Amino acid sequence: RSQVTQILGDCQKQSQELREQNRPQFQAIRENARNRIRSLLAPEQLASFNQWIKDLDAKREKKEVRKQTNK
Description:
Number of strands: 0
Low-confidence stretches: none
Strand content: under 5%
Structural class: mainly alpha
Order of helices and strands: HH
Distance between the termini: 20 Å
């Protein structure tokens, strides 16, 4: 049983490290998409979109903090 727990813990650690390594790439892809969308929006739409993105990022950050706290 302790060996299985060790294996699962190792797997979880490796998965987290991989996510951390790839995070900048995902952020770049996300930012590129956002900028492409911004270029399509009218000025009055841009404010709403930027607020939506700000809220979305705040939720993502809050979720990440919870994940880090639960380790």
